Amino acid sequence: MEKKSVQDIINAFNKQKFMKFLNAEISINEPGLCQISIKHGEDLTQQHGLFHGGVISTLADNSAAFAATSLMEKKREPLTIECKVNFIDIADGSRLWAIGKVLSAGKRIFHAEAKVFTSSDDGSKLCAVALLTIKSTLRVEEIL
Amino acid sequence: MEKKSVQDIINAFNKQKFMKFLNAEISINEPGLCQISIKHGEDLTQQHGLFHGGVISTLADNSAAFAATSLMEKKREPLTIECKVNFIDIADGSRLWAIGKVLSAGKRIFHAEAKVFTSSDDGSKLCAVALLTIKSTLRVEEIL
Amino acid sequence: MEKKSVQDIINAFNKQKFMKFLNAEISINEPGLCQISIKHGEDLTQQHGLFHGGVISTLADNSAAFAATSLMEKKREPLTIECKVNFIDIADGSRLWAIGKVLSAGKRIFHAEAKVFTSSDDGSKLCAVALLTIKSTLRVEEIL
Amino acid sequence: MEKKSVQDIINAFNKQKFMKFLNAEISINEPGLCQISIKHGEDLTQQHGLFHGGVISTLADNSAAFAATSLMEKKREPLTIECKVNFIDIADGSRLWAIGKVLSAGKRIFHAEAKVFTSSDDGSKLCAVALLTIKSTLRVEEIL
Questions:
Q1: CA angle, B68 as apex, B67 and B72 as ends, to 5°?
Q2: Contact residues on chain A for B18, CB-CB shorter than 8 A
Q3: C79, C80, C104, C109: which to substitute to probe chain A, counting the most A Cβ within 10 Å?
Q4: Which residues pair with residue D52 across a beta bridge?
Q5: Which fold has domain D6-142?
Q6: What's the mean pLDDT when you consider all of chain D?
Q7: Share of chain B above pLDDT 90, in %
Q8: Which residue has the higher pLDDT, B135 or B141?
Q9: Complex ipTM > 0.85
Q10: CATH architecture, domain defined by C6-137
Q11: SS3 of C49, please?
């Protein structure tokens, strides 16, 4: 079985126009782990200028999905089946980043978690945790 | 207790720059229900040109949060404590919309659900369902 | 494809000794829907004599899993991949029952919801809602 | 603020008749952490003699709730607002135990996680992970 290379994963990430729209950056350091980060900008905020919850969920979901991707065969793609995020602190930093991690890699079903942090001059803190189920698929139409 | 007016809710929505960035539109027809919709655009897509999962989660979360807002006192704001989304079909339409609905409105804790649909020339279909917990707060810093 | 009969489902339910331990009863009225109910007893309570949250989760999970079973081929079995329950009211009645419903039935992945009610002399009320992902499997060892 | 003692927590646990029914045992080693364990017995099984998913959810929920309790004032009690469990491996051991851990302790809202393990002669393994929201309350009627 030929696994995906880091370049394969970066290419897949770059095909997601929504990631470019958010100016998100990916980094894969080891198989089964993925980091996605984003800089604060007005466009990404809720009513108090904090990172919007939707941006937090997006990074949580995508970091876990790409962590799963890094363990899949070259021809396979991830499909998030479900994603659950707990928002545990306000996201008031200048940067937001999520670390996705595969908890168990099955034949088709992956369980993963993600932790989302914000950082400012005062340091960084955990602002959200997520638990997800991801499917490995040959074609995105196979969602079910 | 003075409740929020529809105009209060629309004003709160307009303060979320991320909603403007996504070109999202809100509609409140009755207290405890909220619809948020968005047109398809390349910027909102994943690798196959479908609506990105992060966009789907964003609409699910926000439609439920604003549904909860519509039942809160004028001076209170919603904070999503947690949000869980199941992705049940591919989001391949030209429009995406979420309907958030409050299931139970407590003194401070609201339970809500959201259903997300896509529509195309062939009609519309359910593509995601969500279950959320939302807190009513006086200040966003009170996240916990 | 030969589907399961109602008797097949009841037989499968009766093989779950934990259901017997809880004195739970199943009823299947139409494919994709399942009801499981239980009478109040001291053994099933938390510190205030209410139904324990674990009992509520158990009924939510199992009602959804057997609803999914009712749509599966004769030789297949359900495996709950994940289950999320929101507890929206106290479970203070004399009977607890859950209604599981399949939201979407894929080739292998089922999305389902469950609603859990309690009833007393004053009537009945919704006390929990759940959202689940269930896998159809040939062998329980195929959990992943 | 007077915190609960370990004995207070054990007393609270012993008031949950459902825990006695399952023959569950609690152990609190440090504030914010709680372990609940249970021995395999036929009464706790699903159709293949494995621990029933409802038993797994019950331990996950309760270990997190008692971990939160260990950080609460003497007069306060935990109420699980919502609980999400991912089942990642089959629970085929002779013992099942959950470790609940508080991720963030707010004034009223606690975020927590739980990990559930099984052990057999071959060693132990992770079989489920959970993410929960718990409320600190003065009276259980204040569920919302």
A1: 125
A2: 43-46, 52, 54-55
A3: C109
A4: none
A5: Thiol Ester Dehydrase; Chain A (3.10.129)
A6: 94
A7: 90
A8: B135
A9: yes
A10: Roll (3.10)
A11: coil
